[in-house]
Amino acid sequence: EAQVTQNPRYLITVTGKKLTVTCSQNMNHEYMSWYRQDPGLGLRQIYYSMNVEVTDKGDVPEGYKVSRKEKRNFPLILESPSPNQTSLYFCASMAGPGQTNTGELFFGEGSRLTVL
Amino acid sequence: EDKVVQSPLSLVVHEGDTVTLNCSYEVTNFRSLLWYKQEKKAPTFLFMLTSSGIEKKSGRLSSILDKKELFSILNITATQTGDSAVYLCAHSNSGGGADGLTFGKGTHLIIQP
To answer: Which residues contact A56 (CB under 8 A, 6 or more apart)?
Structure first.
């Protein structure tokens, strides 16, 4: 089954304690990206990656890091989380230009993060 | 900066009604407009509209793109309670690629029995 898997799904942590949210897709997609969703602000892109070792900032990258060492994985790293990073996070993937692309962005189930 | 504006932000109708959701956009390099449905979890893909595909239909849902007036609408006929969701519109400046996707804030649709 085609899917994007995120972990953890729920996390409560404290300010300054480094955490990583993992994301893995099994569709061999070239594109992967991270979004955060906040009430009244909608979905905002944090970082995206167009292929292995190629990453770029989205609209709200401050306080986040990513890496793309393998095609299937795209972890989101919060080096020193702060309360304003409390949010619902979605990882997503999509086929690249050399693949069959319907325009569909496949989302993970979401990770709800609370920073105290 | 690309901008996507959806209206209304929320809408309550009765089962069986027809609804029209609006999405206007101001972008520097239009490639495609996408619609998603979000219930209490991840968004699911509905349609992608491009210059070569300005009208899409699937069952009771349909969507059109007006490139001249820079807007799109999503129509749902004979609504059902299962249509209750947040509907998201997004612009992509790379033909649907995840790199240039800008989302609107969504329309929260509630269908009352």
So the answer is: A47, A48, A49, A50, B99
